[in-house]
Amino acid sequence: MEDFNWMIGGPQGSGVDTAANIFGKTCGYGGLYVYGRREYHSNIKGLHSYFHLRISPTEVLANVNDVDLLAAFDAETVFRHIGEVSEGGGIIVDENQVNTRLGDVPSLPKEFKSDFSKHLENKGLKDGLNDLLEDAERRGVKVFRVPYTVLLEQVSDRLGMEKLSRATQMINTLAVGISFGLLNYEITLIERAVKAVFAEKPNIAEMNLLAIKHAYNYANETFEKMLKYASPETSVEEERIFLSGNQAVAIGKVLGGCRIQTYYPITPAADESIYLEAHEILETVNPDLKVGVIVIQTEDEIAAINMASGAALTGARASTSTSGPGFSLMVEGLSWAGNNEVPIVLTYYQRGAPSTGLPTRHGQDDLRFAIHGGHGEFPRIVLASGDIKECFYDAVTAFNYAEIFQMPVIHLIDKALANSSQTYSRFDIKDVKIQRGDILKEPMFTGEGFKRFAFTETGISPRVLLGTKNGVHWYTGDEHDEFGHISEESDLRIKMMEKRMGKLETVDKIVSISERVNFFGDHEARNMIVSWGSPKGAIIEALNKLNHEDSSLGFLQIRMVHPLPSRQITEVLKNAERIIDVEMNYSSQLAGILAEKTGISADFQILKYSGRPMTTTEVYNALKLILSGRAPKRQVLTYGS
Fold first, then answer.
1. 514-636 CATH fold
2. Which helix (H) or strand (E) holds 179?
3. pLDDT reported for residue 290
């Protein structure tokens, strides 16, 4: 197995995520690398959700279009994803559902039924699930019809359950057991993963382990050697972790000294705060000393950002976390923080927009909003992570920037990163430093008070924390003088605006270019890709493949999108014959900002705004079309259910 793609799907609330975590952890324990993507509807239960895991002995950075083994709980999963299963791959399906017809699935939307019916008609197929499965078998796909009900009854009997309905909750783990049985994967690794996933519920772990083993043995005995894929013999000495973007940000915040996190629940941001809540009491080297992160669910997003600002003024490293609609409510508080030079961190998880849009789907529509949202002009840093590892380190860096430059920092992420999971070697933290900037412990002053907003060459004033002796100063929403007293004098207004906005030039001088952009591929390439955020992994994999095919490609990843390192970007792009913009919004927002700041326009655009992340397959095909001279200026990608 060089590269194996496993997808599990079923109704929301049926344990898709749990099954995927067991599968991913098991593969990780076996020394394999995993990249997983979670897709789900915005309702609580019932509608379709799925998890796509890509498994490989070498590191993988994104998903691809193919599915090698589809593990379905229900008929809808097969209807939706059967076309993605590769030749030689397999489909695990409930034998009791093979006679289901397309019209019999109430959770399928009418748009899907209409489009899929036309597709079947064009292929000369009927709309029964069994007709589709037989067609898949003709093109080389193996179909594994599994008697889920019989297996559940057998497991229920062995557990002494009187009601079969209790056992139906384990259908997800049966699918995992069938999958690993087909792959002949090491059973001890599965046991380890199940115990890890249900670490706080040992009885539940034992029940699910019994179900997995039963299904594993059934698959071994019934479908022996029917699947062309087999798990490799692997071993790994290093410790590895398997985590999501939400978890990476939360852990990074703790490492970065976060002590206050405020939030109002919203997808996909809330998962970060929930994870922090679950781990808010932290052990230290000293067994008698414990520290904690205070996590506060506020009444709304307005309260969340204002509470974070108040905490930051006392000296706590404070952050809040939200998504697009929540950020809309926060902009007044963000403006207040900008006016008062408050060092807060706002983690912004983009999702499909506008308005409520696609609450649980992906998007990169809010770049300009993150840069400009607020009343008037005030400095901020917008830092965009491109992968889960960057999410972790950027969570620390965001606090450092906030306190060094005394301004809000927006850590811009997206749903694809938040809800994807990946295997990594343990993150190296030995060089991670907490940098708090210019804080005075007891300022010397005359009877006038402390000049909190003193004019300086850099725009950065020494600050004191609320409650510091001799540190009396004022905070207000109005324009103010150096002490913080309200003032509307025009000369002072000009000086104070220039002081605040001048910090962006200070950021430009102080922050190294290596912290603001990444470059991959050929520095002298004729074709230069520019992008930001989560398309990074798919771009790198596509670029590496094309460069092995003797193409000339480079990739400039913009990490600090504001203030933009315009001079260095111009230097990289000025000699390129083709500039290719890749991003996940309708209007090529980054390309527009680059043209505005550098005068350099993109020659081609590869865009996606369907609410589903880009895959390596899509990006490779789109770039190949450009390199062949056959591409339109604007390509819109559409893969994903």
1. Rossmann fold (3.40.50)
2. helix 171-183
3. 72
